[in-house]
TrEMBL record:
Belongs to the ROK (NagC/XylR) family. This is ROK family protein. It comes from the Bacteria. It comes from Nocardioides jishulii. It holds the Pfam family ROK.
Length: 301
């Protein structure tokens, strides 16, 4: 008899990542498959998820499965209403996958899943008021207020990346201009550093070797991180701000200029307790762990 386990499946625009997660949040047997992108048929995507699940389970039966979707999930966790990088449109994903797999399925937005991973098994255990800012291609975000992970009236809370920080600023793929994620994200870092670095990790390596251009890029992106976080802190007064996503591996290269800008831009900074800025515990597996946490909560009710 094996111990109970849950499966988290993180469905992104380019890849599907699935993992077996135990009650302590430990991940085992991770499977990665290409997701096919927004133009692939829905059936092909769902076949890919089914294959990932089968490989992760290897004949054993999970107690439940959580799906973290890179898209907007409705307020009750049933429907993917819109996902720019996936073929699901107004799709009743939870019911359909649950019927197909014969197990309870939880469905949630991927950034919200990353918050759950930190709340249950990471930097936010026991923290009642917190913010999460995940820096990737854009910004994924989440809020914990009074001990509750906030979803908003329509499931769309935490879209911090599209707050305007520069009036009439850089154009954003969302159709607006001056969005925070155009100044503060993995893409913004790559743009600030210039074309001589092939990848994000290469910029980090160069900055660690005191390359002036790479250090200046981190200073710029870190400063924008602090500016946006100051606005969010003014709104919700958290005790911890978790920085996640691929760029967070740069740690102090990003957090030092961010903390400096936070002090400069936050109202009453000298007369209040400043939130702690910390790096997320879960990097690439955040969606997998968070989705499995939600499946566990669903099946342990
Ligand atoms: Zn935008």
């Amino acid at each position: 008899m094996t111990d109970p386990f849950w499966v988290g499946i993180d469905v992104g625009g380019t890849k599907v990542l699935a993992g077996r997660v135990d009650a302590a949040g430990r991940v085992a047997r991770v499977v990665r498959l290409p997701s096919g992108g927004p133009s692939a048929p829905v059936e092909l995507l769902e076949q890919t998820l089914t294959e990932a699940l089968a490989r992760v389970c290897a004949g054993a039966t999970p107690t439940g499965v959580g799906v973290a979707a890179a898209g907007l999930v409705d307020a009750v966790g049933e429907v993917v209403s819109f996902a720019p990088h996936l073929p699901w449109r107004d799709a009743d994903v939870r019911t359909r996958l649950s019927a197909r797999w014969g197990v309870p399925v939880a469905l949630e937005n991927d950034a919200t899943c990353a918050v759950w991973a930190e709340v249950e098994h990471g930097a936010l255990v026991g923290v009642s008021d917190a913010l999460m800012v995940a820096l990737g291609t854009g910004i994924g975000g989440g809020l914990v207020v009074g001990g509750h992970v906030v979803r908003g009236a329509g499931g769309m809370a935490g879209e911090f990346g599209h707050m305007q920080v520069v009036p009439d600023g850089r154009p954003c793929p969302c159709g607006l201009t001056g969005c925070w994620e155009r100044y503060c994200s993995g893409s913004a870092l790559a743009m600030a550093a210039g074309p001589r670095f092939g990848s994000g990790p290469a910029i980090t390596d160069a900055a660690r070797a005191d390359d002036e251009g790479a250090l200046a890029a981190f200073d710029e992106v870190g400063r924008w991180l602090g500016v946006g976080v100051a606005n969010l802190v003014a709104a919700v007064d958290p005790s911890v701000v978790v920085i996640g996503g691929g760029v967070s591996a740069a740690d102090d290269l990003l957090l030092v200029p961010a903390a400096r800008a936070l002090r400069t831009h936050l109202v009453a900074a000298a007369d209040r307790r400043l939130p702690e800025l910390v790096v997320a515990h879960h990097a690439e597996n955040a969606g997998v762990v968070g989705a499995a946490v939600l499946a566990r909560r669903l099946t342990q009710r």
